[in-house]
Amino acid sequence: MLETPTRSLRSLFRWGTPDQYKHPNHRLVSLMLEKFGLSSAELEKPISAGLESFKAEIPCKLTDSQLKSLQSLVGSDQVSVDSYDRVRAAYGKTMLDLFRLRQEIFENVPDAVVYPASRKEIVDLLRFASEHGVHIQTRGAGSSVTRGCEAPAGGITLDLSRHLNRIIKINPVNETVQVEAGMLLPDLESQLQSAMREQNLDYNYTLGHFPQSYEFATVGGAIVTRGAGQNSTYYGKIEQMVISQDYVTLQGDLVTREVPAESMGPDFDGLMMGSEGTLGILVSATLRIRRHLPQNTRRFSYMFKDFASGLAAVREVLQSQEGMPSVFRLSDPEETDVALRLYGVQGTPLETMLRWAGYKPGQRCLLLGSADGSHRYARLAAANVRRRVRHFGGFPTTSFVVRKWEKGRFKDPYMRDDLMDFGVIIDTLECSTNWENLPRVHETVRNACHENANVVVMSHLSHFYPQGANLYFIFIGRMDRSEFEAYHHKVVDAIYQSGASISHHHGIGRLLSPWYPEAAGSVAFDLLTAIKNHLDPRGLLNPGVLGLGKGN
């Protein structure tokens, strides 16, 4: 176990908190040895662990007068020009971020990090930016996987997570919560799920938003990137949870009404969601919540003989109008075999039974999931899944696999650090498409992924809709930075050329911005540009994100 020294390089690039780890188990290690030709000796000494202290000194381009002005607005202890703090604010969790940090490449760093404590301070900071022509980036907790945190033009980065991280009000009558943008999702959930005890309410509540980055993601980050949690098939993506929003823009306030729906021209909530800090700064939002009823959750898993049968089964479930599962995840054959290996199913009586029944390695597909809601709803939704999937040959494999997946679902990203210590990368790309096009997307993208033979490629469907689903691609391989960049570009291009969306829930950032104007269409992108020019005529907010303004 590698300790993470304070202010070390590793503390900048590693996932999560310094005192938590998830090391690859012996089954994953054996897979690496087989697939990548690694020797046991190579796994005894890391290539680059990043344990050395951060020593870089990065010049600040703000003048003394500008720094004094910033300090007068928020307090001197809420403005940092420390190089470590500035680098930390500029990097997210893309594989490219991790490569650069391990190589001590510090670029696109803000000149200062500012920690506003109120809406008024954000207003004042935007006024300062406008008066001085200083660029502003906005940061939550730094879990971006789209290069959304960078500051290509320097300027200041606003970190909202230090102070703007509170619940303003839980409204049990409307079943809503008003919350500041910098609040971490686990902190929000903790207070919602203890509302009966802590606030003397009749029920505990949940937002139902559980992305894999859950432990280190903020409410505002989820909203402005239009994120999705792993339970989204039942609870919806974040945009289905947003009731109203409060933004500060360079042209004034943009506050939407707290109503469940309206017919008053274009949807300004929708416009601002997904803007990724390019149009204004989200201060707070009112979100839909639901009663927290974990005692009713029903878990299930099934095995199919092939991917086509699994696809037909899940589509039938989603279109049956007999209840929506909460977690719903269909793995393709390669991911299924890897999952069964990592979960320790290989060599067990269950594995023997599956083979005997015709569920063969390299062909079979695993479906796992759960159903939430009231006792009656969860029971009926799970029963509907059981009835529908059995029609397509789904073999019940109990809740064991689901519970194993649930146990590690928020900890898996920790393994990236260990793997990368030995030159092995693990990264993901996701997209969405309709049912009719899904087999084509799956085949096209997997073929592109497998053009590099020395790569393990896993893919699954998650975030389901009656009209289609999200496809998630996970690839593990030995690559250097240049190889990874070329590989990543090729896979994104394959997604785009297949007719799928280039992002379902991670946003665009700067990483996917080369594809975005064409993917959006010229009229739509020109309209977005016009809105940007109105709200931010000098291009001061998050330059380069969504392909708007200058940025790397």
Please describe the structure with a list of short key phrases separated by commas or semicolons.
alpha+beta; 3 domains; Uridine Diphospho-n-acetylenolpyruvylglucosamine Reductase, domain 2; Uridine Diphospho-n-acetylenolpyruvylglucosamine Reductase, domain 3; Alpha-Beta Plaits; single chain; 552 residues; seven-stranded antiparallel β-sheet
Describe this structure in words.
- By secondary structure, the chain is an alpha+beta fold.
- It has three domains: 9-159, 2-Layer Sandwich (Uridine Diphospho-n-acetylenolpyruvylglucosamine Reductase, domain 2), CATH 3.30.43; 167-291, Uridine Diphospho-n-acetylenolpyruvylglucosamine Reductase, domain 3, CATH 3.30.465; 294-409, Alpha-Beta Plaits.
- It contains 22 helices and 18 strands.
- It has helices at 9-13, 26-36, 64-74, 83-90, 95-102, 119-132, 185-193, 195-199, 219-224, 232-235, 238-241, 268-272, 307-319, 333-342, 349-356, 375-391, 400-408, 415-421, 438-449, 481-497, 516-520, 522-535, and strands spanning 79-80, 112-114, 136-139, 156-159, 167-171, 176-180, 205-206, 242-249, 252-255, 281-288, 290-291, 298-304, 328-331, 365-371, 395-396, 424-434, 455-465, 468-478.
- A seven-stranded antiparallel beta sheet has the order 15-12-14-13-17-18-16, with helices on both faces. Strands 5-6-10-8-9 form a five-stranded antiparallel beta sheet. A four-stranded mixed beta sheet has the order 1-2-4-3.
- Strand 8 (242-249) and strand 9 (252-255) form a beta hairpin.
- Helix 13 packs antiparallel against helix 16.
- It is globular.
- The two termini are 36 Å apart.
- The model has no long low-confidence stretch (mean pLDDT 94).
